[in-house]
Every structure is written in structure tokens, then in C-alpha cells.
Design a protein that fits this description.
alpha+beta, 9-stranded antiparallel β-sheet, two-stranded antiparallel ribbon, 19% strand
Length: 385
């Protein structure tokens, strides 16, 4: 993977995609593969399609169980580029791609493809500095972030169960954007097998072996309270996203005993149940103690330091993905309707959280995820006209 400061041109990216496809074709041309075989149906063809249009963009709460593969592309707009027309064109392209009518899909069925678009603080401030999403993320500890891996004007989040779709869709959208955008950084990610958390709610394991994203606004009422923006009209139906790419020190974490690992998180590794007891969906009982007076959930455990009730903020919806390039880690993705939900939580974690010493953040950005769109209301039109 290329560094954030030395990214390829759009033409080079499209060429690289072609080389990858060609390499895959060559790899499949062995004498064994030349033998007649019964046709195998494409997995994505059986996946339920996710509508691109509606009150909210897809890829936040829909599909309810996040797809296995993700590509997040962060880019800047040229200083003379008007955001409105560009976003409207991207919305048209997204509708065609998710419907399967865009020839740049190269015959791949769209399946459960979703594309989610957000705009960075600079663009939000250009429309109205008082709007949610106008504030940049502050800096935190344990960051090693190059200048081009911090912030950005445009987020394109592409998710699909079919891994082949992700780079093909990225190439199509970047081709539609043309020279109006300049890529800053990109990150691919994969999600592990989902683990049941509650009725209708699942969450994957992360690279540290623990279930990730158990707590969140899962019901419609919780999402209206903590996830979706209610106003002003230009942003109503949108949300705020935070992306943080983190390297994980797997070797040092694996050297801990299971009990020590569980003390870091405050949950059982195998089941996700809080160390204070209950079920995986139970909130930790932070006041529970052993007979000799020790807290069952250690004072620096992650579930205590990041507990929304203790921090005094709402819940964030996490749809994070594990990564293996440029290093094993996590692309942390959270959605919330108040940026303070994230910033206050991480500030409290910075003070004392047993998990943070195993992490190093190498990219960071926040975006206003635009409200949903349809043919009568193009993507971004309420904000940029």
C-alpha cells in the first residue's frame, strides 16, 4: 500500500485495477481450470439489494448487518470545484451502480452494494459554519498521522459482501469525479463472522479476538435520539462520521494471559459478557465488587472508560472493519449526531484506558454524512444547492 503522501493518480489507480483483474484471470488459466465445470452462481447475486435512495443514505444502518468488505476513500476537492454538481453526479452514479445498470460494473451483480458519501468540515463551513459537521477533530494522544492522512473534503465509503465489487465501484466513482478530486488516502477492511448480541443485533470480532460494537443505538428510537441529525433542514437525516485508522500491537496483546486481556476490555473474550456478569447485551455493573473490595470491571477497563453514561454522552453506532495493510489493525468507524459523543469519549479514554497502549492511530477524519437523496432531491442539494 502506498503512503498517504505518495498516492497514485486517478489514471494509475484505474490501471492498477486492470492489472489486478488481469492477474486474477491469468491465475485462473491453469490446465486444471481449463476442464469443463458446472457454473457457480455469483454469491452477490443472491444478496438482497439495498436501496440507494431514501431519507438516509445506505451504509449506516442498512443493511442491518454490515457487509464483509469495505473500502473508504478520502479525497480533497479542487479549490475552484463547486461541491453541489459533483455530489449530484456522484448520487446519479451510485443509483446506477447499486441498480446494476452502470456498464462500469463489468457485468458484476451489485448484490448488497452500498455507497455512503460524506463531506468534510471545510466544505460544511463553506456552506454554513454553524452547521453540525463544521468542526475539525482535535488531536489526541498515541497518534502518528501524516499531513495527508488527517482530515479531508470527501468520504466515499463502499461496502459489499462481494470483495470484487469494491475496487470496481471505486474506479467508476473516481472516474465520474475526474480531476475535480485528489485522493488523500484509502483503506480496505474486512469484518469477521457476526456474533449474535441481542434479538436482531449482531457484531463481529476484531483482530484482538473480542466482539466489537456491542453497545450502540440499535432501535429506531435510539437512532433518532443519538444517530440521525434532526436539523437544520440542510442536514436533517444525515449523521456525523468519525474514521480512525489504528495499528494494533497484536504480538504484545497476545502475550497477555486471557484474564489479563479480559481485564483490558472488561468483557469475557469468548462470550462478550461483562466481567460483572449478565449477558453479552448487559451493560457492565461498574459498582460491582469482589468480596475483598476489588471492582469486577477494573478501573482502567475499556468498557468503563468509554461507558457513555459515565462520559455523559449519547451512544455511537460503530461499524468498524479489521485491516491488514499497511499494518494489522482496525478502521474505527462511528456514526453519531453530536461530535462530542466521540471527542468526549476519547478524551476520557486518553486519561486512562488499558486498551490505548496497544493502539497507534495513523489516519483520522470526520465527515458530515449527507442526508438521503432521490431523483427529485439530488445528493447534497439541500446543503449546496
Amino acid at each position: 500500500m502506498m503512503s498517504a503522501d505518495h498516492h497514485p493518480s486517478r489514471r494509475a489507480l484505474l490501471g492498477a485495477t486492470g492489472v489486478t483483474v488481469a492477474a486474477g484471470l491469468i491465475a485462473g488459466c491453469s490446465s486444471e481450470s481449463a476442464q469443463p465445470r458446472p457454473p457457480v452462481p455469483a454469491a452477490s447475486a443472491t444478496r438482497t439489494r439495498v436501496p440507494a435512495t431514501g431519507r438516509h443514505q445506505a451504509g449506516v444502518t442498512l443493511p442491518r448487518s454490515a457487509q464483509r468488505n469495505l473500502l473508504a476513500v478520502v479525497a480533497d476537492l479542487g479549490t475552484a470545484v463547486a461541491p453541489g454538481p459533483l455530489l449530484a453526479e456522484l448520487g446519479e452514479a451510485i443509483s446506477a451502480l447499486t441498480a446494476g445498470s452502470d456498464p462500469r460494473l463489468l457485468g458484476l451483480p451489485p448484490g448488497d452494494l452500498t455507497v455512503t458519501v460524506g463531506v468534510g468540515p471545510r466544505l460544511v463551513r463553506s456552506a454554513d459554519a454553524a452547521l453540525p459537521g463544521a468542526a475539525d477533530l482535535p488531536r489526541f494522544s498515541r497518534e502518528r498521522i501524516g499531513s495527508r492522512a488527517r482530515g479531508g473534503d470527501l468520504l466515499i465509503q463502499i461496502c459489499a459482501d462481494d470483495a470484487l465489487l469494491v475496487p470496481v465501484v471505486a474506479a467508476a466513482l473516481l472516474d465520474r469525479a475526474g480531476d475535480r478530486v485528489r485522493e488523500r488516502w484509502r483503506q480496505t477492511g474486512r469484518r469477521g463472522t457476526d456474533v449474535p448480541v441481542a434479538e436482531g443485533v449482531t457484531a463481529p470480532r476484531n483482530l484482538l479476538g473480542f466482539i466489537d460494537g456491542i453497545v450502540g443505538p440499535h432501535t429506531a428510537a435510539e437512532q433518532e435520539r443519538d444517530l440521525w441529525l434532526a436539523g437544520p433542514p440542510a442536514v436533517a437525516g444525515g449523521t456525523l462520521a468519525v474514521l480512525r485508522r489504528m495499528e494494533l500491537d497484536l504480538t504484545r496483546f497476545a502475550a497477555l494471559s486471557v484474564a489479563e486481556q479480559e481485564a483490558v476490555f472488561g468483557r469475557r473474550r469468548d462470550s462478550g459478557v461483562p466481567l460483572s456478569g449478565g449477558t453479552v447485551a448487559s451493560g457492565p455493573e461498574l459498582g460491582a465488587k469482589t468480596p475483598d473490595g476489588r471492582y469486577l470491571v477494573p478501573v482502567d477497563a475499556h468498557v468503563r472508560r468509554a461507558n457513555p453514561t459515565v462520559v455523559g454522552v449519547g451512544h455511537m453506532l460503530r461499524r468498524s472493519y479489521s485491516t491488514d495493510e499497511p499494518a494489522p489493525g482496525l478502521l474505527f468507524i462511528s456514526f453519531q449526531n453530536d461530535l462530542r459523543t466521540f471527542t468526549a469519549t476519547l478524551s476520557r479514554m486518553d486519561a486512562s484506558d488499558a486498551l490505548l497502549p496497544f493502539t497507534t492511530t495513523t489516519a483520522s477524519a470526520t465527515f458530515l454524512i449527507l442526508p438521503g437523496f432521490d431523483p427529485q432531491h439530488p445528493l447534497g442539494s439541500d446543503l449546496f444547492g
